[in-house]
Amino acid sequence: MPSEPVESGASQDLELGTTEALQQHATRSVIAHKPVSQRKLNFERRRPRWLRECLAEATGVFLYVFPGVAATASFLTNAANPIGVGCAYAVGIAFAIITCAPTSGGHFHPAITLCFAFWQGFPWKKVPYYILSQVLGAFVAGLVMMGMYWPQIQAINAAFIAQGKPLVGNGTPASILCSFPNPDQTNLGFLFMTEFFVDFFIGLIIWACIDPANPFVSPSTVPFMIGLSYAAMIWGFADITIAANMARDLGTRMVAAIFFGREAFTFMNYSPIAILVNIPATFCATALYELLMRDSLSSIGQGHAVHEDGEEGLLRNLSKSGLIDDEEMRRPQAARRQELGKMG
Question: I need a labelling partner for 192 at 20 to 30 A (CA). Which of 17, 210, 266, 324 fits?
């Protein structure tokens, strides 16, 4: 039977558009979609999953790096409010998660990808593809920003050269793209510890936010909480040099090397700290959460995870823990399942 044409409904109906977000909340009806064609379904079925995931990771990184470096460029070229840099990264991260996480899982950070593989069973074979995609997203974001701000950046370059100032360093044109230490920050150990604790803070907040058993974070607030964790660190420590994400720093640092030379990687021997320290720091943060704060039994009880040996394995664990007795173990399976549901 052919589908009926899609037409606007009564005057109280909401027209199709961003109103789709209200489908589960609005008391007024929203005009229906046109029927989905078989051609569209065939196209979507044939899309390689790996390509969709990689493009989603690259796009997600682009969505938060682009407003972040643009806000930094505005701060340097127009003396804008520095608070805006943290806000731009925070909102960009929220937008990235909202837009791309349904496709790829929303890592957008090589250290987070590695931690998912180590702690949560994310396939190791996907790790290189995800990391390369994340770096690519930051690289493209840096290139696009440089193109859009090129006249202003050229003017700043000319002013710096006329005054005999270097183009690479903190507060220079190159710092729009990636971080550099202040001239007096010659102690690499100090820079290491600053970066480590900033990344540890962000990693711990991310891991707490994505824990399905955490009662204080709802799914709709996760993107903004993670974004705020980045913003808080930018507001607190950007003046003394932080990077916070390997993909963001490496991708945009390569753009800086294109426009400002290889000193973008060699300046004060800082780039290895900016690129690599976030990985061990995030591992330490997630290890703290996994070893001391994770409540896997609560996750199982709420239906977010399963015991590796199924229901029988869960019951054995509950019996050993004293949460159920031997008589409970002998009850019919249906009754036990109902009781487990009540515990969750």
Answer: 210
DSSP string, 119-183: HS---GGGHHHHHHHHHHHHHHHHHHHHHHSHHHHHHHHHHHHHTT--SSSTTSGGGGTS----T
Q: Which domains does the chain have, with CATH numbers?
A: 51-293 (1.20.1080.10), 309-343 (no CATH)
30-74 confidence digits (pLDDT tens): 777 789 999 999 999 999 999 999 999 999 999 999 999 999 999
End-to-end Cα, the chain, rounded Å: 45
Closest CA to 104 of 42, 62, 146, 76: 62
Which amino acid is residue 192, in one-letter code?
F
Residue 195 and residue 273 in contact, taking contact as beta carbons nearer than 8 Å: yes
Report the DSSP beta bridge partners of residue 317.
none
- C-alpha to C-alpha distance for 165 and 52, rounded to whole angstroms: 45
Helix (H) or strand (E) holding 338: helix 333-343
